Amino acid sequence: MTNRRGRYFLFSLLWGMTLMPASGFAHPFSSSYSRIRVEGATVEVRLTLNRRDFQTADIVGAVQANYHIEAPESPLQTAVQRTDTIAENTLLLDLIYTFNRPVTNLKVTSTLDRITQADHSHILQVGEGDSTREAVLNAANSFINIDLREKSWWETVWDFVRLGIEHIFTGYDHLAFLLGLLIMTRTFTSLLKVVTSFTAAHSMTLALATLGLVSVPSRAIESLIALSIAYIAIENFMGKALISRWKITFLFGLVHGFGFSNVLKEMALNRRELAISLFSFNGGVEIGQLVFVCVVFPMVYCATASRWKHQFLTVSSLLIAALGMYWFVQRAFL
Prior knowledge:
The protein is of the alpha+beta class. It has helices at 2-18, 59-66, 153-170, 172-183, 188-210, 218-238, 245-265, 271-304, 309-333; strands at 31-39, 42-50, 67-70, 77-85, 90-98, 105-110, 121-126, 133-137, 143-147. It has a 6-stranded mixed β-sheet, with no helix packed on it. Strands 3-6-9 form a 3-stranded antiparallel β-sheet.
């Protein structure tokens, strides 16, 4: 009976995912672009806009109210240098921001989705050549901070190692997934297989996605991560793995790697930093995972070896499954 309930629960989850609304395809994709050049205390911005995206005649005023440059203080002056229509619906808008000191840090904020379409994406580029940095701003990620100062190799490595560690310990969905894996792990050999397969899988997709070789919608990835948590919890509740644990871990590890990559993709990394930041961030993720496993696995092992084993497995599995379901509904439908 328990196995039957578990399989029905899993089938319901997967079927629910196929019913996700496809409202994002109901209208044309909305986007805008900006190229940013910093010269001392002056920031020059060229915006490329689609007139059809705007429902107002005062496009310049609407853009200035929803596109902001800070460094990190507000500019002393903002001036419109040029407006020009280069095609039937394509508008070029040149803005100049003047600050009271040389700019070393930029904060770019775009809330253009409020005056265009809810799915509007703003693509920005800072600098030129090898120092170029790119980012995409939208309703979910409306601003980005960009450090324009040159950092030493060790400073860059440490910044991204620390970012990887922080991401693990603040990524409660990834921790819930790891905990679900550890609950049914009985031996050091099986632990090594599970950790190795998860590491290998997420390292692959982290690299592919960060380098722009593979792209998967963030909403789909975050929903699948939630489903992976629920699936592992269901297997734990049933007390039987439908597929070898290290194999299913590798499969879901590929999905989690795309989730990790969102952190780096949201940052405006220049091309020279990309390889070192990718390597360092992944190293930080591995350090965070190793610390978590070393602390939690002994406690899980003791709990599953005690007379409270069945109560621990039941309660922990139900809690993790509930978290997975909650995150899935939140990410897929809300």
